[in-house]
Request: fold
Amino acid sequence: MRIAVAGLQHETNTFVGGVTDASAFLKPGGWPELVRGEALRDSLAGTAVPMAGALAVLSNHGADIVPLLWAMALPSGPVDHAVFEAFRDEIVQGLKAAEPLDGVLLELHGAMVTTAEPDAEGNLLQTVRRALGSEVPVVATLDPHGNVTARMVACADWIEPYRTYPHVDMSETGARAACRLLDFAGGMHEPPARVYRPVPFLLPVVAQATDGPAMAALYAAAREHESTADVLGVQLTFGFPYADIADAGPAIVVYAESDRRAEEVAEMHLALWLDAEASLHMPLVGPNEAVAMAMDGAGSDGPVVLADVQDNPGAGGSQDTTGLLRALVEAGARGAVLAHICDPPAAAAAHAVGCGATLDLTVGGLTSPEHGAPVEGPFEVAALGSGRFTGEGPMYRGNAIDLGPVTVLRKNGVDVVVAGKRMQASEPGLLRHLGLNPEQLPILAVKSSVHFRGAYQAMARNIILVNAPGAVTMSLDKLDFRHAVRPVARAVPNDNRRPTGDFT
Ligand SMILES: [Zn+2]
Reply:
């Protein structure tokens, strides 16, 4: 069987400034570099990305694999439409050149917005479908932060989103997608009936964690339905509310033996989501209160984890806001480590003066001072690193990571990791690279909404979600939506909730 594969991922935050250009796809912080053709196999094998799992399954089945392209950029502003078109057309031309094909597997995100196209994945899938005709099965993996559209569902024979947030099942998702594609390509199963149901509310990302009891119940219900003979798949996505497009929000896609059955099951799951709406929120705590709670609760059996959930680089945050760092420094939270702030000049300055030196500079607050002024020095240079290490966490394992020069700067007993690039705070390898052992820290502050749980939840003594200012606001009603049509989910306002700091 001849199967072509390609990957193109971007999660677009339309509320942050700037246009994402081609260079953003070359070496995204933490992820594999852009790769084309046969080199794709070696580059991605053994990593956690969906394509790794898909390639393993396809190889095991002896498929004749035609690797075209794999590219990802970190979440940021809208993608330059010409850049998107160039990637799209390269993929489509590669598919045409590879014909005859028995199937196509695409690794996509689902929340890419370009400067001219709110539904980039729908556009890509439609272009692929038009180029190949209706007979060649097309299966796409998606990130559950994708804002799934009716066009995506119509143009792909099957979508397969990850089932976890933190995304610890990306390669497994690729493997599932590849198995499904092989079934279609081998004629084992005709592409099934499908129904797409948008869920009529927007959900802030902290409320999307799949370990949360309400979200876990929705996923369990989906798996339960899939065990019935006439339901092939119940796919859930929680959407990305920071992409201000008409289709932003969660969605349910049901694949079944008949339209009627797919409709029936989709309605059941929609009802479950509506029932769960008010339960899908997590309490946040102000920075000063959170730091006080962490200092009170710190012990020797794992860190209290403070999650700076509104400066999440994995959702387009600048990763240089200072609200939580300032609270830690002002409180003198001795032994606390914050990982990490993206501040290339500070990292370079630390390398210039060397370990043990004192630096009189400011840290953070570079790109959005409205979310907190830079923290004034002096800082002691406590550690230096090249920023090059191999990923060991659940999302980045096996990746050759290069964050540029990294350092640990110390002030008032607080250590802040500073790097030259943004990267989701779900990688213990960065801390170990700098001689820090996360298990032994009293307090670990991370710039992440949910993904940090993949690396740190098991070792955490406690987790506190902190609402320091940042672009990735959890108060969605503060965003100036122009295109999104769904209302923000019903919820008790965070400030009126008793902050427990407990996750469950
Ligand atoms: Zn995601």
